[in-house]
């Protein structure tokens, strides 16, 4: 396939995003006001949103699709752009004092836009994956350098046809040594590949610089492949002036973008839940107070990010002074739990006050379950890897809570911890949304305890 339709892909995605944005805006207006034709205030809002999106999207380049295809990374980038866009729109609204805009219309517009784009990106990635497996939309590549490294790379490409790479030539170290640099460069230019993979153990820096300059001049991507095998480790590149260094970790570090995205989502989601659920909060507070003696709320010290202690808040589900004999984990048919408390725990309603912890920044909506120091010391003795979970904010809900539930002893806490360690390796807004949906399912089915 000689035509490079992928060159038109960013423009197509950009226009498609803009179309979906307006589809979301006009549908939101229809649902809120019962008419597709917007009035003056709504029209101002729609125009403002469109202008802001064009600028923010162009700066973030969220419409670019890179190889290899990573749907999660692409949606994360889109969500970060969406948050920047929302902040930009709110700033303009506040600066120009445009306050006559329906909050319901704003929230519904952004919710629909997010859903539309997730569907669009999923369909696009499925389509690209399909046609590349069929042999279309491929890029011609040349691999030069060490044969062992090259064989590993070729094997990876053969196992993932969705990458869309066709090997047009391989030039070994021996072949490179037998010809001059000018001949090598001339031969590569004549073959006109889309990308060149440089596999090296020891690379001549002058040759590498010439290859990079050639790539810039002829629009050929130059990618360097080392002989390093990461296994289950993770790496990111750090540049110390002109010295590139790979920083290795046993777990992926959470980038600044993901941290900003996650915190923005936490604040937005918690604010919506606390405002929309205010009547439910009041009802739960009153019923808790009337059904048993003691305060409506319960607080307890837990350990958060970087081992910093904080107080967690809940609706009280146990009788007062339930731990006079010392720290105890809850269990089935626990006599300390009130009848009303049992119902709250099964539906997880007792944990709603923790949204205040999320707003304060002590917790995140999704993250490892926060534990007490008393139990952390016992867990660490059995599984020292628990310390990894203390590098992130604990969560109101977690993948461990969804798939395992509450633990009745330290051994069960260790078993549940394995789920949270898996989450630590795949932190993204997509996985957070998935865990939230599963948590809602547990609440509706009353399967908590």
TrEMBL record:
Which sequence ranges are marked TM in the entry? 12-37, 43-66, 78-96, 108-131, 267-290
Ranges where the Bacterial sugar transferase domain occurs = 262-444
> Superkingdom, according to UniProt?
Bacteria
Annotated localization: Membrane
- Which Pfam families did the record assign? Bac_transf
Q: Which PANTHER family does the record match to this protein?
A: COLANIC BIOSYNTHESIS UDP-GLUCOSE LIPID CARRIER TRANSFERASE (PTHR30576), UNDECAPRENYL-PHOSPHATE N-ACETYLGALACTOSAMINYL 1-PHOSPHATE TRANSFERASE-RELATED (PTHR30576:SF0)
Q: Which NCBIfam families match?
A: EPS_sugtrans (TIGR03025)
Stated name of the protein: Sugar transferase
